[in-house]
Amino acid sequence: MIKWLFLLSGAALFYFWLKANRQKMSKNGMHSQSHSRVKAKISTPEAMVQCQYCKIHLPQSEATFIEDRFYCSKEHVNKIDEQGWLGSTFWRVSPNYDLRPNRATPELVVLHHISLPPGDFQKRSCTHFIVDFFQNKLDSSAHPYFREIADQKVSSHFLISRVGEVFQFVSTQNKAWHAGVSSFLGREKCNDFSIGIELEGDGECDFEENQYQALQMLISQLSIQYPNLQFAGHSDIAPNRKTDPGLQFNWKRFQEKSGLSVEKFPYGLNSR
Predict the structure, then answer these.
(1) What does residue 68 show for φ and ψ, rounded to 5 degrees?
(2) Domains in the chain and their CATH numbers?
(3) Given its phi and psi angles, is residue 42 left (phi above 0), alpha (psi -120 to 50 degrees) or beta?
(4) 232-246: pLDDT as tens digits
(5) By 3-state DSSP, what share of the chain in percent is helix, strand and coil, each rounded to 5?
(6) With a cut of 70, which residues of the chain have pLDDT below it?
(7) Could you tell me the CA-to-CA distances from 81 to 55, 72, 96, 171 in Å, in that order?
(8) What is the residue-wise DSSP string for 209-247?
(9) Three-state DSSP class for 33?
(10) DSSP 57
(11) Residues carrying an active site annotation
């Protein structure tokens, strides 16, 4: 009997010794893993990115991310960079542009309207057709009207969709193909010295509140870079060819929301 008691006691002591060693090994393993993770975190530097506007380098976690671009502050997002691109817009580069003659500075904003297919924006989202059109990527088989314009090569600097999205296609430093044969107060070839802004619409329907708000914000940003801008419609500079932005565009509302002086509207504030 005593013999069996010794055997049981020895087995119990061995069991507790083995359990204690396993717990010790487990704690050491966890400590080692934790130490490895801390070491890896310390030894792996955070990715650095460059601000699109001012070119300063900063940690990616501190940057504002817009599409595939980084900015060091929201202030720089809302500025035009040295290449003529506005950070707060969707960049969709168009091949349809020229250099401005003699590096002319923009002095005029021309407002247009556009709808592809005509009027379809009232029942579905059609903005992507306009984007494709300005990039020469429009699928002519997608709608009968597209076959009529398949060979046209046009562009604008900016497009404001029905929901207020702002797209940029051409640098403000370059000449977009938006005005055609035109004259502003006796000065011809308006593309040379103007910025074209397209509003998604057809001139028969009211423009959306989102569009007026987006236009106001866009103009405030452009005016900082180009303080001498004046404003006109396509119908003002090409009266025998064009009617846009049309009777549904409220010039007075635009002027008041933008805080622009009446003198910057040489054709007046009446809808036309």
Answers:
(1) -110, 25
(2) 35-77 (no CATH), 89-262 (3.40.80.10)
(3) alpha
(4) 999 999 999 999 999
(5) 40, 20, 45
(6) 1-43
(7) 10, 13, 20, 10
(8) HHHHHHHHHHHHHHHHH-TT-EEEEHHHHSTTT--TT-T
(9) helix
(10) E
(11) 198
